[in-house]
Amino acid sequence: MREKMSLPSKKAIQVDENTVSYEYKMLNHVMSLVYHEDKCVECGFCHRVCPITVSIYDEPLKRTAIGTPKEMKMESDKKIVVDTEKCVWCGSCTWICPGYTLELFINGEKKLNLVENGSLPEFEEEVRTLENGQKVRKVVEGSITITSTEKDTKVLDTFCDECAVSAMERKDKEIEVDRDKCILCFKCSEAAQNYDNISVEIHRDRFKNIKGDPSSVWDGIMLRVLGKEGKIKG
Prior knowledge:
This is 4Fe-4S ferredoxin-type domain-containing protein. The chain is of the alpha+beta class.
């Protein structure tokens, strides 16, 4: 006798070695948030843009539906995981993802309702191709400053390797940033916490040129990614 499925149902489905589909299935409606592990650059944007996040300016983020296993307090060998009990399948994380790592499907069709209904704007993409052939895009404008007193070249090389888009390079005992490559994500600033003599300050001033007149959903994203004052360090 075949076991009956209780609806609605929420579950994570391992599609293949690099792909996980987080599925929310209702009677006549299926939403799937598909995560491609091999494309993830560990930027940290998805964790911050998630509307389930409750954050206080300059304090640690609290309660979010997506993030690293450590942030989510979940056991996994994946770079990021989704808590299906918290996720609302809104697509905000897919909208901002620089590495095209996340995709939202509604009844098998790839789409973003928040963009289609005007809640979120379309924005100008600055896309480039990494050495491995992967495409990444820059979604925010701003600046980055790296301060280092580290003299050990091996440590400096290790830190430069933290960047998933190859925007950092050691020149003698200095760290140089290729600002055309840098996507102003959170990876190196978070990694710097593990280095005694290296610090990173990033100011995200604004999103790339946006189109349309977005709703209050946009205000929440501006707060979580750019901060109350329009700028956030990190």
